[in-house]
TrEMBL record:
Alphabetical list of Gene3D superfamilies matching this protein: SGNH hydrolase (3.40.50.1110)
UniProt xrefs under InterPro entries: Cell_Envelope_Struct_Comp, SGNH_hydro, SGNH_hydro_sf, SLH_dom
Annotated keywords: Signal
Record protein name field: S-layer homology domain-containing protein
Length: 432
């Protein structure tokens, strides 16, 4: 498989301010149609959501083998199921012969993602190429929706029969036709909603996790689908899909720390982020909840929380060497303008992050919005560079301050604080 060619990012330090901790490697198989295969808005095979998920699993040090060789453009839910039943063999991602077959790869996988059903629906929906009018036979449409549910349920059921311990994640679809007339959008969205409900019911009833994507994708559909004649996303759109999966995934077991207990406000946040591979302890049984967070460690935590394309130009700060374990992560966040350097060209990777900086990077990384309402008595100067970031953080329920209606922007950020802020931001994205 072309894993070495596909995933070309700098190796990470296995911990954030920590000693080395051994982790279990997870084999990942992606099944489905052109979205799993990675067809882009130019009808070329490239990086799809499954590829970005594989990169993210590699970054969190849990990826074993990765395969999307059984995903195929144009596949219906029936064809995905048929491949699994018939134990098909398809060339490996590097072009070499497949000696395993789909069933063996499923049996050895810890993570399986599945998207199928959109092509079933497209077969019974007619869209006039001149007027954009959408029409379909209601009986045929209802039958197709029902059959998608049956096929998804059968596919997940067979995966679970082959491998009862596999974590299966099934994707709901986005609106592929944002350019059609506004008069037709209600019909499209109703059809999409019915399709997704059928997929969700089938996934949940068979022990899989349903991954919704429409709420995150649809509001910016034209941005993510820049070609009006093509239903496939660009890179930004695929990252939206990958992040929807990543928010739903757990890649590690929970962990008991001698200095963390269930009476702490940060307990749920710490355990959730451990299970998602975002944070770990020091390797000596401790987490260090009250320890300060360095800027380079914050970069590692953020890039493990959010799926980015890591193939960006290297950062060029005068005090940041490529040998820094967080060099790749800092490069990514610098490229996406989440974490900046200083006016003198330095980054200062080892200095502690303060609460003003934390507000800025959380708001920017998670694309949080606000109205500008003031929240804290010690954040009243509108000209202060972090004024809006702090207020937006509060408006979104990510922070309530430190008491007495104060935020203390210059205080250093503790590890449990940063974990809690990331946890709340992820929760907000999941519930929106």
């Amino acid at each position: 498989m072309m894993l070495v060619l596909l995933i070309a990012v700098s190796p990470l330090s296995p911990t954030v301010n920590a000693q080395s901790v051994e982790v279990t490697k997870l084999d990942y198989v992606a099944l489905g149609d052109s979205l799993a295969a990675g067809v882009n808005h130019q009808d070329q095979l490239g990086m799809g959501y499954s590829d970005f998920l594989a990169l993210q699993m590699k970054q969190t040090l849990v990826l074993g083998d990765y395969s999307k060789q059984y995903a195929y453009p144009g596949y219906t839910s029936a064809e995905v199921l048929a491949d699994l039943k018939n134990n098909v063999f398809k060339p490996n991602m590097d072009g070499s012969p497949d000696t395993d077959g789909i069933q063996k790869q499923i049996m050895e996988a810890e993570v399986v993602t599945l998207n199928a059903g959109a092509n079933d629906l497209l077969a019974v929906i007619d869209i006039d190429p001149k007027t954009g009018v959408v029409s379909y036979d209601e009986v045929a449409f209802a039958k197709a929706i029902s059959q998608v549910g049956v096929n998804i349920g059968s596919t997940v059921g067979l995966i679970k029969t082959l491998n009862p311990n596999a974590d299966v994640y099934v994707m709901g679809y986005y609106n592929s036709f944002p350019y059609l007339p506004d008069t037709e959008q209600p019909k499209l969205l109703a059809a999409l909603d019915n399709l997704n409900k059928s997929i969700q019911t089938a996934a949940v009833s068979t022990g899989a996790t349903y991954v919704p994507t429409a709420d995150a994708f649809n509001p910016n559909g034209k941005t993510y689908l820049p070609n009006p004649k093509n239903i496939h996303p660009n890179e930004a759109g695929y990252l939206v899909l990958a992040n929807a999966f990543w928010r739903a995934m757990e890649v590690k077991d929970s962990q008991d720390f001698s200095d963390v207990n269930d009476q702490m406000y940060s307990y749920d946040a710490i355990q959730t982020l451990v299970q998602k591979g975002i944070i770990i302890g020091y390797g000596n049984g401790k987490f260090g909840p009250e320890d300060s967070v360095r800027r380079d460690h914050a970069a590692q935590m953020l890039t493990r929380s959010i799926v980015y394309n890591p193939n960006v130009p290297p950062a060029s700060f005068s005090d940041l060497l490529p040998t820094n374990p967080a060099f790749a992560e800092i490069s990514v966040l610098s490229h996406y303008k989440v974490l900046n350097g200083y006016h003198n060209g330095t980054f200062r990777p080892t200095i502690e992050l303060n609460r003003a900086e934390m507000a800025k990077i959380i708001v920017t990384a998670f694309n949080l919005k606000g109205t500008g309402k003031q929240y804290f008595d010690d954040n009243t100067v509108e000209e202060y560079w972090a004024y809006d970031y702090i207020n937006i953080l509060a408006e979104n329920g990510i922070t309530i301050g430190v008491g007495n209606n104060r935020y203390h922007p210059e205080y250093q950020v503790q590890r449990e604080e940063f974990a809690t802020f990331i946890y709340r931001a992820l929760q907000k994205q999941t519930t929106n």
